[in-house]
Amino acid sequence: MNLLALSASAIGLSHYLIVGAMLLACGLLCILLKRNAIGILLGVELVLNAANINLVAFNRYVAMRPDGKPVLDGQIFALFVIVIAAAEAAVALAIFLNFYNSMSSVNVEDASKLKG
Amino acid sequence: MMNLEAILFYLFALLTVASAIGVVMSRNIVRACMLFLGSLVGVAGLYFLVHAEFLAAAQLVIYAGGTLILIIFGVMLTSRSLATHDEPRRREVWVAVPIGLVLAGALIVAILRRFDSVQTKAVAEVPYPTLALGQSLVGDYLLAFELSSVVLLIVMIGAAYLSKARPREPKDER
Question: What angle do CA B39, B29, B171 make, to 5 degrees?
Fold first, then answer.
């Protein structure tokens, strides 16, 4: 199985998983490369979205009860991830505002007061 | 001849991944937020394609309408001039980019090996998906649902406490 054969076939689980993998890599790069704390927050949100794509795709193509009935567990998990992501963004921004109040910057390199 | 589903999938996938790469590459934080909006819209389109309509709507309303606005307010409250650029160090780029590429490559190879015959047959659909979603939120997942409301309350109190206006410390020169 290679990418060429995949692109010729009908849309299936692997396609969504590959989009999720690329989004995860972008999010990780964003976390690693940004100096701005809000940029790092954006990277975390990208990673959460990648996880959500996987959850929803598995829910569509794999998940069912032992008796063959369909389930919606993946979608519910994704819904909770969205809620937690919103909560996380609120707390993170409150911390950044506090940090900006004392340091006049949101550059993570300036957060070095606890350095030994 | 590709069918409509394939065309829409590649369109939304391209929008999602290209915007995400744009978020990584852009040096301007406001531009990164706008590109992130493109990524969110693409993910919402992918949700539509896997028949998760309620989730797609929730993604647009909560993420694009709520979280992203919150982040943009955060940007506006914390930057002196909106055009500030942050350049990553060259050494860090040389470490981080290979890490990202290796991660993406390893995941894609693993996915292609594991799911060697493409699983294109979807499981049977739930008859009324949104109804079933609501019923399991107040049924099987009632505890998690209630706990998430407690989490949101705590977050609201915590965020309000953390970000309350405080006099700026007089002795900072920067």
Answer: 150
